[in-house]
UniProtKB/TrEMBL annotation:
This protein's name: Uncharacterized protein
Species of origin: Candidatus Cryptobacteroides avicola
Tagged with keyword Cytoplasm: no
Keyword line: TPR repeat
Repeat positions for TPR: 599-632
Protein's UniProt keywords contain Transmembrane: no
Length: 654
């Protein structure tokens, strides 16, 4: 290189090196100072965001205290001498606290914080990416990022898109442009005049017909006169689209999933963004923390990791705290007598009433009934008085025969289980040598039980269980509508034997006899019991209203929809709390206005009145609640409906 060219090269390169050196120096300073963005709590949220816009328009309110004295409340602030003076202007204040109390409403919480980016972190060739992380009850959620993009950085992104657009414009979509149509037409005119004659013919000629006449396909002819080099280059461009996009646009402009992407035209002081996020509440939610981290990018290269900020804490207040957890009781009438029943399917041999445990599924059914009887005999609340055993038969055969057979089977079953109870009672009397133990039928020992009283068995029978058959026919999904109608017509015949003979003629009789009839051969057990030690037929007692208490718990769990569903019928204080928590102000007001004015009721009224814009009543009810319970002085600062009134009218000022 010639010596005289060196100064010229330096003159050209120097302007490019200066900004680069400047950025490197700035990065070093940022790292040395460990600069980071900050999270801050903004000034108090606008009153209009929380209550009716008309709620604080009055300058002077006339309210009455609990003793009936009238007093005037004015919008006021303290002057330089500490005196309260009326004013319409409320000066903003800078809040430096690391926490704020926020209120949960309608099952949601709105938190607001400021992202403050120092001027030293900003550069026109950088993109700052900030990631707020929300921590709630041990879970973390990354909120939508905030991007601050320098003007030169954005120009670089747009330049990349422009370069990519120019690349795409070189891709030819219409491939016929690669065909030399003029030469192709001359070739066909000279060598294939019969084909050329088709030029003015609008009729369609298939490729097969073209080839059969001229020995060459249309595709072959087109391929011959196509500029293969240009077509190949075009195809290569198509294949390189994704690669070229990544080359020209290394950092795409993202629009989805962002809270903010702002372009800084000039670095001029700190950048401040008010970030607002809505959180769905959950049971036990008391606070939420927000931490901010970030990165600095130059093009697609991360050049600095911004240290995480100190956390902001939001303490969450909720109207669920006003739920009254006092237990609610119901008066319940307890009957001395009680009944229980079950059915079993015990099979018998034809024309026989003896129980065969080895027949069909008898052993399992008998085991189940014995288990039911044993549990009733050992029940600590009830004594078993009697068992009614009702056996029923299916309709085949004569009615008189079925009636007698059903009665015999009922008596057989009653005797069988009477013997079981007798053996069970005898086992209790065979005490073992160990004091306080009882020998059981299965050879084990257990605590000595009270003596089992005598149990009466009552044998009943249903000759032919037509009622159960009627239900089975209606519920059956195999029989057709016509077959069911034929059964209904036969069921109108009064005489059961003639009715059965009529059914035998129907096409569905075989199905009925094989599938439905066996279900009719049942033995029903009705157990009659009485409460131990109870003499009167009825006793009135009180029990906890579980439905109501579940509603109260739903308020505590902040499941307000469930709470309203459970508590609405009661129309009491807790129902009003649930309505208020969901923002159903009219429903809440219709209940609260008719309740005794306790401190809690007055406070809830103040909240609802503030929401509906009735400021005078809201202030009066709030002051009454504070007189009744001074704890509401502090509580009022936590609920935006009341905090707005406190701020506007300087309530509770000493």
């Amino acid at each position: 290189m010639k010596k005289e060219a060196i100064p010229l090269l330096i003159a050209l390169v120097a302007p490019l090196l200066v900004p680069s050196c400047s950025m490197q120096r700035k990065i070093r300073e940022i790292k040395q100072d460990s600069l980071s963005a900050k999270l801050a709590i903004p000034d108090e949220e606008p009153i209009g965001d929380k209550i009716s816009t008309s709620a604080v328009k009055k300058d002077t309110l006339q309210v009455v205290d609990l003793e009936g004295h009238q007093m005037l409340i004015m919008k006021a602030v303290r002057d330089d001498d500490g005196e309260m003076v009326a004013t319409d202007i409320l000066d903003a204040a800078t809040v430096t606290a690391r926490f704020r109390h926020v209120a949960e409403r309608n099952g949601k919480v709105d938190i607001e914080f400021q992202v403050i980016v120092p001027e030293k972190l900003q550069h026109s060739k950088w993109q700052l990416r900030f990631y707020p992380d929300l921590f709630v009850m041990g879970d973390s959620t990354r909120l939508k990022p905030v991007l601050i993009t320098g003007s030169e950085y954005r120009k670089g992104q747009l330049r990349g898109y422009q370069q990519y657009e120019r690349f795409l414009s070189r891709i030819v979509a219409d491939t016929t442009k690669f065909i030399d149509m003029f030469q192709l037409e001359i070739f066909i005119e000279r060598n294939l005049p019969e084909v050329y004659a088709f030029k003015a013919d609008s009729s369609y000629v298939t490729d097969e017909a073209f080839m059969s006449r001229f020995g060459v396909t249309e595709k072959d002819a087109v391929r011959h006169y196509t500029n293969k080099l240009r077509a190949s280059m075009n195809n290569r461009r198509k294949a390189r689209r994704e690669k070229m996009y990544a080359r020209y646009v290394p950092v795409p402009i993202v629009t989805d999933g962002l809270k903010l992407d702002t372009v800084m035209q000039a670095v001029n002081g700190d950048f401040i963004y008010n970030y607002r996020q809505t959180i769905n509440t959950r049971p036990g939610l008391r606070k939420a923390d927000v931490v901010l981290s970030g990165e600095i990018f130059e093009q697609d290269r991360k050049i600095y990791t911004i240290p995480a900020s100190e956390p902001l804490t939001f303490y969450i207040s909720s109207l669920s705290a006003f739920a009254d957890e006092t237990e609610k009781y119901l008066t319940k009438v307890i009957e001395r007598r009680a009944e229980a029943n079950t059915a079993c399917y015990i099979d018998f041999h034809a024309a026989d009433a003896l129980i065969d445990e080895n027949l069909a599924n008898n052993r399992e059914e008998i085991r189940r009934i014995k288990g039911n009887i044993a549990s009733l005999l050992e029940n600590r609340e009830f004594d078993l008085d009697s068992i009614a055993v009702t056996a029923s038969s299916s309709p085949e055969g004569s009615y008189s025969y079925n009636k007698a057979l059903s009665q015999k089977r009922s008596e057989s079953v009653a005797e069988y289980f009477h013997d079981y109870i007798t053996a069970y009672r005898d086992s209790l009397e065979q005490s073992s040598m160990d004091e306080g133990l009882t020998y059981n039928l299965d050879g084990t020992y257990s605590e000595k039980k009270d003596t089992i009283p005598e149990v009466d068995f009552i044998s009943k029978s249903i000759a032919e269980n037509w009622e159960m058959l009627d239900s089975a026919i209606e519920l059956d999904t195999v029989l057709t509508g016509l077959q069911k109608e034929a059964y209904r017509e036969a069921a109108e015949i009064p005489d059961p034997d003639r009715r059965e003979m009529r059914l035998q003629k129907e096409t569905c009789y075989k199905y009925m006899r094989e599938v439905l009839y066996p279900r009719l051969r049942t033995v029903r057990f009705d157990f009659h019991l009485h409460r131990k030690g109870m003499v009167k037929d009825t006793v009135h007692t009180t029990v906890i209203d579980t439905a109501y208490m579940n509603g109260v718990q739903a308020i505590r769990d902040r499941d307000y929809k469930t709470a309203i569903a459970l508590l609405a019928p009661y129309r009491d204080y807790n129902a009003a709390v649930a309505y208020s928590a969901m923002g159903y102000n009219a429903n809440a007001l219709s209940i609260l206005e008719h309740l005794e004015r306790t401190a809690e009721v007055n406070y809830m009224l103040a909240v609802v009145y503030s929401r509906t814009g009735d400021v005078e009543k809201a202030v009066q009810c709030y002051l009454h609640s504070c007189e009744q319970n001074p704890a509401f002085v502090h509580r009022g600062k936590l609920d935006p409906e009341i905090a707005a009134l406190i701020k506007a009218y300087s309530l509770n000022e000493e």
